[in-house]
Amino acid sequence: MADRDHRPALILRHPPRDRALHWLLVIVFLFTATSGFALFHPSLFWLTNLTGGGPWSAILHPFIGLVMAVVFVWFAAPTWRVAQLTPNDIAWLKGIRYVVSGQEERLPEVGQYNAGQKLLYFTLMTCVLLLALTGILFWRRYFAGYFPIGVVRLGALAHAFLAFVVLISVVVHMSAAAWEAGSIRSMIRGTVTPGWAYKHRRAWFREMIRPGAGR
Amino acid sequence: MALQSLDIIRRSATKTPSPAARGPVPAEVAKLIDTSKCIGCKACQVACMEWNDLRDQVGTCDGTYNNPTDLTAQSWTVMRFAEYENPQGDLEWLIRKDGCMHCADPGCLKACPAPGAIVQYANGIVDFHEEHCIGCGYCIAGCPFNIPRISRRDHKAYKCTLCSDRVAVGLEPACVKACPTGAITFGTKERMKVDAEERIADLKSRGFEQAGLYDPIGVGGTHVMYVLHHADQPGLYSGLALNPHISRTVRLWKGVVKPLALGALALAALVGFFNYIVAGPKEVGPEDEEAARKEQEKAHG
Amino acid sequence: MTNHWVDIKNTDVVLIMGGNAAEAHPCGFKWVTEAKAHHRAKLIVVDPRYTRSASVADLYVPIRAGTDIAFLGGVINYLLANDAIQHEYVVNYTDFTFIVREDFSFQDGLYSGYDPAKGRYDKTSWDYERGKDGFVATDPTLKHPRCVYNLMKQHYARYTPELVERTCGSPREKFLEACKLLASTATPTRAATIMYALGWTQHSIGSQMIRTGAMVQLLLGNIGVSGGGMNALRGHSNIQGLTDLGLMANLLPGYLTLPNEAEQGYEDYIAARAPKPLRPNQLNYWQNYNKFFVSLMKAWWGDAATKENNWGYDYLPKLDKPYDMLAAYELMLNGKMNGYVCQGFNPLASAPNKAKMTAAFSKLKFMIVMDPLATETSEFWQNHGEFNDVDPEKIETEVIRLPTTCFAEEDGALVNSGRWLQWHWKGADPPGEARTDLEIMSDLYLKLRSLYQAEGGAYPDPVLKLAWPYAHSGEASAEELAREYSGRALEDLSDPKDPTKVIRKAGEQLAGFGELRDDGTTLSGCWIYCGAWTQAGNLMARRDNSDPTGIGQTLNWAWAWPANRRVMYNRASCDPAGRPYNPALKLIAWNGKSWGGADVPDYKVDEDPSENMGPFIMNPEGVARFFSRGGLVDGPFPEHYEPFESPLGYNPLHPNDSRAVQNPAARIYPDDRKALGKAEAFPCVATTYRLTEHFHFWTKHALLNAIVQPQQFVELGEVHAKELGVKAGEMVKVSSNRGSIKAVAVVTKRIRPLTIEGKPVHTVGVPIHWGFTGLTKGYLANTLTPVVGDANVQTPEYKCFLVKVERA
């Protein structure tokens, strides 16, 4: 192992803006998910104790949910271009079993984000926006009265379904982050080691070390 | 909305058993509203406001006799007037007292996420306990009759209680007491059905061949029932539902979706967690760092 | 009511006409519901509008407002033409067989004796022919051309279904269906009831409309029987008590009448009111008039009423002319009446033609308003924007408002439509400075008395000698007054048959008006109420609702006048031999020795039926009258005349007789006639009425009522509204020749255009309840109505007048 002096220069993966927004998103997500869980299933109603009690949970959930949608868009919008799927991503997805089995050399080299991350990106982007929309449909205090009851009911059902998709996605996201050691650190400190980049995002790594590419 | 806790047989958002010590099971009660005796005098509305200490806004006339024009958190019952020209060319003024039907299978209770905010008593009354209400309005989405209303003032849900406080001490609901023509009666559901049969026979003898009782099975029957001259067309009575039932959407939302989704989520989280524990993370090894260093050097030549 | 509310449950057919029982009398209407549910009764509603009553009716028949006599005359014609009458009843219990004077006639829409200059009838010829024995001549064979039966048959033969259809706009088949249903009760075991209210009284021919209804009931044998009757629904608590106690300018308590100027002599006064029997062996109960009168005078002036001063007759005012409501306002307008004590009345809202009322009140020097509410009348001088656009600077009337208690804040008896005096107890203390009417009136009297005592004045005796025996002189209590109107013995009363036997000791309460004497030994403030408070106590306070016969005769619940009798003329429920026509609903029967049963007999209790005493004991004939003789001023048989504002401008029964368009005997002041509108400018027939949600002009002050009916509206038929381009909920302006109001349009299928004489006529419904004080404000409906009253009793014609409707 290289000693301290020989420690390689770290590569910046997540600039401060992204990190700050990500963790802001995590906070509002935790509140929204907790209160949402409480409203979603009776056996989780106790979670309202964490979000201010029943009435406060019901009052705050839609507001914080809207904040979440705004923060998410703010956070994720600049990534729109990078998140577009490439032919390499398709090939990578087709060989996803090699990712699980650690035979990544059999796959195309991965850029800044792998195809899984990109799918997550689009899934979350879609779901968060739809959650906001469907939430408004049955936001009783301000809006629900303007919609026919059938639409309100569909809204409620769709909202629950979308929330489920988001939650599943977040679970996958968290598992993946934990599994790719160094990822969580990168979202906390912003940087990865060259080895991490080399191993997990080799195409990006190469781009980053191209002369003149330093940030 | 007295809390007769020993008589509660079902609570919203609660899976554990309700108090079951009491027996024998009391008879189910019902309010029978005979539209063929109702003159639309609104005494029931006023009695409801008086007993429950409710005072709605002094509104405006919308060009009909309906007033207040809709149910509100302050108006738990309203008369709805419908003018119907029958196939013989004669006019019928079909007047219906609208309010909570107290379904045996209440959609509001099913939809409510707040434990104990909606309860059903052994006598069939479905009651809102506003102190537990969180104001989410899911009961509105759950109700097949469009009854609950959220107060603009306190954001709690309100509806007819069937005067559960009066009934609990052996009195009839206030509207029943006030009804001058006997169009609203109250008693055991069995008795009310017998009375209804007598009324239906009378209506049939007067040429209303489709007269019948409105006690829709789609919601398991109701504890507020109507005698209708045209039981085959309840829609004539200001849109009374022909076949009310808890919406399929609501059933899905509040039914299978809940355990399935929770299960799937829990499973995903557990798989992720145990995968980490068992297989461990994909660590970056020294060889990766070495390979990276080499490439960096090459790039910077 | 001849019968009572509960008895309606025993009926087979209900005719609601000239009223809207479900709307205005919802509590009593329960008995109609009962009759339908448990007596298989059929309900007929005849009304210009499809009403709340119609909503539960078996048959609804539309009618043009004001044409009820045409309709009912058609019913009479149907019954006579089809012989659907109860023969035994009409022959024995009515004047069917009586022969009418030869000089009586009816031509060109006028009865004999008409004086066109005075607009009045000389009623001499309206009488029966007398036989040699001095009694009325009769023809039991009904063959005599001038017997009442034949005259009536001839009179109503003109009222064909075709005439009914084109005059009333009632579809012929519906009209005939109604006739058939009513005719079904001509059998002895079936009965129909007629329920009416101000829809009949508020017409220039209102009294005659009611008479026509009564004639239908007599033909069918429905008067005096359980489930039958002529049932006036009293819309005001306590309007029955008001008439009973004689609160009219020409009345004394108990339907005694004030003398007129010509009647200076006491004997003449009594003679004119205590008639001689017209047939042999008739009870002729009014022959006791002087007993009632003397007992009343003793109640008023006590020891000061003596034989020498004709029991106080000389203290009574003698009327020089009518002082009915319309006459009084005309006097005010002409500056001939300068002060006005307005007690429990809101005439600016309740009297016709608001503009005239405002002008009349503006001429007053002072007005004292006694009322629990801030009435429109008490603020007639205040500008309330468009709702009362007056200039206070131009009105000099001094208005004094004395707040009173309302009914729930005092003890007393209320008389319901069924003549029951029901005692009620104070429920709460009055707010603020409110005082009871009794307290205010007592105070007023004591002050006037002390002024007279101090200053003398013209003829002070009636004031100074008034008996004032109340424990607290400043406030006579309800109990004291009740004991007084019921009556007591002033000396020991002995049995007329056995003078040694004392039947009533001095000071004891009397058991009934049978004990009243004309020698000053009894006192009773209202003879028909005599027996309401006996030695047994306050019978009005009884609350035993036991009904031993099951037909709703709860004789121990409260107390009914007269004599606790619940169904008037109940002798007529039995055949001439004294057997009940309908044993299932037996009211009374003759048991060989006396009359008795579920009710107090309206008959001499020990009178053997073979003696031929008639069942209508108040009439000198002993029977009921189809031919009213001089009873009414506008004809012995009712005849249809058009309302004073008629969409036709002529009478379909007398198209060429200009004197017979409107009631020829009705009184109308010249300015009021000028204010009448014509159909060319005001083509629609408007009618005013009440809504269930409100009570007159009171409940707009009450939040609950304001909530359930919050805004003034008028009702227009769909066809009419379409012609005007008005949608439900939009504002419209309704104008008559006297003024206009604005209100929300309720556009309804319940009002259909009527085809009258081949032309469509629209009805416009104008609910009355709004005004410029209260929680929900609007225009006074009587801005629109004309000042003309019924020819007999001067009840204004609120129920039909001409308007036009425009978008506002």
Structure write-up:
- The complex is a heterotrimer of chains A (215), B (301) and C (808).
- Chain A has 215 residues and is an all-alpha fold.
- Chain A has a single domain (14-209), classed as Up-down Bundle (Fumarate Reductase Cytochrome B subunit).
- Chain A has 9 helices and 2 strands; from the N terminus they run E-H-H-H-H-H-H-H-E-H-H.
- Chain A has helices at residues 16-40, 54-76, 87-94, 96-100, 115-137, 149-179, 183-189, 194-200, 202-209; strands at 11-12, 191-192.
- A two-stranded antiparallel ribbon of chain A has the order 1-2.
- Mean pLDDT of chain A is 89; it is low at 1-5.
- By secondary structure, chain B is α+β, with helices and mostly antiparallel strands.
- Chain B is 31% helix and 17% strand.
- In chain B, the strands form 4 sheets. Chain B has a 4-stranded mixed beta sheet. Chain B has a 3-stranded antiparallel beta sheet with strand order 1-5-6, with no helix packed on it.
- Chain B starts with 7 loop residues before the first strand and ends with a helix.
- In chain C, 22% of the residues lie in helices and 16% in strands.
- Chains A and B meet through helix 1, helix 2, helix 6, helix 8 and helix 9 of A and helix 3, helix 7, helix 8 and helix 9 of B.
CATH H level of chain A: which superfamily?
Transmembrane di-heme cytochromes, Chain C
* Uncertain residue ranges of chain A: 1-5
Order of helices and strands of chain A: EHHHHHHHEHH
Query: Mind describing the biggest β-sheet of chain A?
Result: 2 strands, antiparallel
Number of domains of chain A: 1
Per CATH, which architecture of one domain in chain C? 3-Layer(aba) Sandwich
Radius of gyration of chain C: 26 Å
Which CATH architecture of chain A would you pick?
Up-down Bundle
- Secondary structure category of chain A: mainly alpha
- Low confidence ranges of chain C: none
CATH topology tier name of one domain in chain C: Dimethylsulfoxide Reductase, domain 2
Task: State the oligomer.
Answer: heterotrimer
Beta strands of chain C, count: 33
Range of strand content of chain A: under 5%
Counting helices, strands and paired strands, the structural category of chain C is: alpha/beta
Output the CATH class name of chain A. Answer: Mainly Alpha
Largest sheet of chain C: 6 strands, mixed, barrel
